[in-house]
Amino acid sequence: MARILIAEDEEVLRMLMVDTLEDEGHELHEAADGQVAINQIMENDYDLILLDYMMPLFTGLEVIGKVRNIPEKSDVKIMMVSAKSQQSDKDLVLKSGADYFIAKPYSPLELVQRIEGILNEEN
């Protein structure tokens, strides 16, 4: 079982992610904006952060920048989830410190497979 933060401002998408990943037995935390995401990251240790690109208060890129500058949190795995799926967007996300990228829309099966692959890399 992994501890995962889902930072997504669109409630329907966040709930879909939660429903999909709950079935896999993971401990899930939620954030509806970038500030809540940062607060959650400061208070908890996560195996993976699923981070929306465009969120209120702090964008996904800004959250990544803050996380990567906190030594005890800097090695957490981050997957950016975004509708911005041009190659230049993906390159920027990865250059900014995300470990993985998944484009919206995605299937629940694709999300589960990607996450399980990431979590299995650590074992």
Structural commentary:
This protein has 123 residues and is an alpha/beta fold. Helix content is 44%, strand content 20%. It has helices at 11-22, 34-43, 60-68, 87-95, 108-121, and strands spanning 3-7, 27-31, 48-52, 77-82, 100-103. The chain has a five-stranded parallel β-sheet with strand order 2-1-3-4-5, sandwiched between helices. Helix 4 links the parallel strand 4 and strand 5 (100-103). Helix 1 (11-22) packs across helix 5 and helix 2 (34-43) runs parallel beside helix 3. The longest helix is centred in the last third of the chain and has 14 residues, at 108-121. The radius of gyration is 13 Å and the shape is globular. It starts with a strand and ends with a helix.
